[in-house]
Amino acid sequence: MANVLFIKANGLPAERSVSVKLYEEFLKNYKASNAGDTITELDLFQVDLPYYDATMMSGLFKESTGETLTEDEARLAKVANSYLEQFLAADKVVMAFPLWNFSIPAQFLTYLFYLNQAGKTFKYTAQGPVGLVTDKEVVLLNARGGVYSDGPMESWEMSLNYVKNVLAHLGIKNPQTVVVEGHNATPDQAQDLITAGLEKAAVLANKF
Ligand SMILES: Cc1cc2nc3c(=O)[nH]c(=O)nc-3n(C[C@H](O)[C@H](O)[C@H](O)COP(=O)(O)O)c2cc1C
Questions:
Q1: What is the domain partition of the chain in residue ranges?
Q2: pTM of structure
Q3: What is the pLDDT of residues 94-115, one digit of tens each?
Q4: Rounded to the nearest 5°, which phi and psi values hold at 93?
Q5: What one-character-per-residue DSSP string does the chain give?
Q6: Per-residue confidence at 159, pLDDT binned at 50, 70, 90?
Q7: 176-199 per-position pLDDT tens digit
Q8: Residue 24 CA to ligand 1 centre (angstroms)
Q9: How far does Cα 72 stand from its chain's mean position?
Q10: Rounded CA separation 72/87 (Å)
Q11: pLDDT (0 to 100) of residue 172
């Protein structure tokens, strides 16, 4: 029985969001195929995610060096660490997120910053950083209105690529992905593109 963390990085309702549609379809199918698993849903738009500011950074740094933290530093370090611990406790993680302004929502960026902690999720070596999170299976569900998989916009894709690179840095090398793209660029094909993506999400959820 696996401990599975579902992360939703979009505050829109499913009717208005392709990535939330993917999230709900994946979750529904995963639950049906894995009734005994423990599932935790984390909606990043419903929780308080304080910015990775100087106080939080100072708190996390002092913690790593064994210095005494101020009350505010301790409070903010605890927030980041609680999300990190939840992530580390999961056997499997599903992340659903949109491409917005070529990137990811700020809430998701802040969350990923919490996870990126030297000595906990990666370490520095003479050969460069080495990821320490090597025991986790991850699925990424992404939606982007334009086409980025090839063509002139390919290098502008800093949503899925960013998340994949951050995860690789942590040691998670081969997340499985479902991407719906181009539904805004070609509205006449939008329904078909979304339906195909939902089918892929369902198939993957049933074997994940
Ligand atoms: C704030 C915002 C920014 C967006 N920026 C881009 C963009 O840079 N490029 C693009 O192709 N589509 C962009 N879009 C369209 C989204 O990629 C598209 O709506 C996609 O379906 C997003 O996932 P969602 O439906 O789950 O919100 C943007 C949409 C929003 C709301």
A1: 3-207
A2: 0.97
A3: 999 999 999 999 999 999 999 9
A4: -135, 135
A5: --EEEEEE---S-GGG-HHHHHHHHHHHHHHHH-TTSEEEEEETTTS------HHHHHHHHHHHHTPPPPHHHHHHHHHHHHHHHHHHH-SEEEEEEE-BTTB--HHHHHHHHHH--BTTTEEEETTEEEE---S-EEEEEEEESS--SSSTTGGG--SHHHHHHHHHHHT----EEEEEE-TTTSGGGHHHHHHHHHHHHHHHHHH-
A6: very high
A7: 999 999 999 999 999 999 999 999
A8: 18
A9: 27
A10: 23
A11: 98
Known binder of ligand: residue 18? yes
Q: Residue 164 has what pLDDT?
A: 98
Choice from 144, 155, 161, 181 to test ligand 1 binding pocket (greatest atom count within 8 A of CB): 144
Q: Which ligand 1 atom is at minimum distance from the Cα of 17?
A: 25
Point out which residues pair with 38 in neighbouring strands: 3
As a whole number, the mean pLDDT across the chain is: 97
> For 3-207, which CATH class?
alpha beta
Output the residue whose Cα is nearest ligand 1's atom 12. Answer: 145
